[in-house]
Amino acid sequence: MDLIEQPDTAKEAPGGRDAVSLEGETRPCGELPCAGLLDAFCSSLSSELNASTETVRAYRADVSDYLRWCSRYEIPPLGATHRHVRRYLAYLDQARYARRTANRHLSSIKSFYRWLVVAGCVSSSPAEVIQGPKQGKPLPRVIKQGEMDRLLSVTLAGKNPEDISATDLRDQALLELLYAAGLRVSEASGLLCSQVFMDEALLRVMGKGSKERIVPLHKTACSALARYFDEGRPALLKGPSPYVFLSSRGNPMSTNAIRTVFKRALGKAGLDLSLTPHAMRHSFATDLLAGGADLRSVQEMLGHASLSTTQIYTHMTPERLQEAHRKAHPRG
Question: Is residue 150 among the annotated active site residues?
């Protein structure tokens, strides 16, 4: 079963997902059909494939949307045909979902039906032969160096030492770490103190699929982390906690809380508010390649299983490719 990298959030169709009907009036969704099978499917993602909590949540949301649609049109999910799945994709298109979102929904539905086949609930998958809408592959959004400098300075800028709070120190360390280590939001949220090696300037990150990787840290990030550990985190602790980043109540910071910190910093820096924390990860990879890092090393630091996933960042650094061509080509 292939897992796809799920985004942080899913956009609803304008007017809500129940606002659009393909054929006549919509019916109330009622109880979710196959809810027990969906629970078992999500459990298998966690136990058998080591899928992260965020990935399982995204799969559950996508498949739940499909099952509600089946309920609305009185289609038994275990008796659905490829025509029904195509109608669901048409529904998403009519509801003005992005092609990338529609393809993600289709991938989730395919995974669900594959699991149903293995579990003996259906004889074949009605979604297997269906291809999603064609889409281009947009380049990852990155933050330019000057904008990154502004983003990483706004939290403490203009504040006297006595006015800097524990949450200020936490937010500064968090932003520095997202960029310095290319962390996913879920990885930052789940980062443990035992995974931070200040003396060696290293992080041991547990990534998607429980894959572990080692990421070096630069001096600026180490300095921000050290100050947070010394002055900020003790003030946030309400009791023993293994987590690095804590809320004002002493709980581990949730992924949504981290996104809120990032959006607040974007606003203060005057940057595009549509940027997400994942842009820090994209910028990390792009800037490493632009600085001369080899592709394989960047792959390891990002935790990508396939080098082809990392190769998209080479398109972001044409100057580096031109320089490599100039040095290597006999007529360069």
Answer: no
Active site residue 281: yes
CB 165 within 8 A of CB 153: no
Residues 6+ apart with CB under 8 A from 15: none
60 counts as catalytic: no
pLDDT value of residue 77: 96
pLDDT at 263 over 70: yes
Q: Is 179 a catalytic residue?
A: no
120 phi-psi bin (left φ>0, alpha ψ -120 to 50, beta other): left
Asked about 304 being catalytic, the answer comes back as yes
Which position among 84, 105, 281, 282 bears the catalytic label? 281
55: helix, strand or coil: helix
User: 323 falls in which pLDDT band (50, 70, 90)?
Assistant: low
Catalytic site residue 282? no
Structural domains of the chain sorted by starting position, each given as residue range(s) with its CATH number in brackets = 1-135 (1.10.150.130), 145-326 (1.10.443.10)
Q: CA 102 from chain center: how many Å?
A: 17
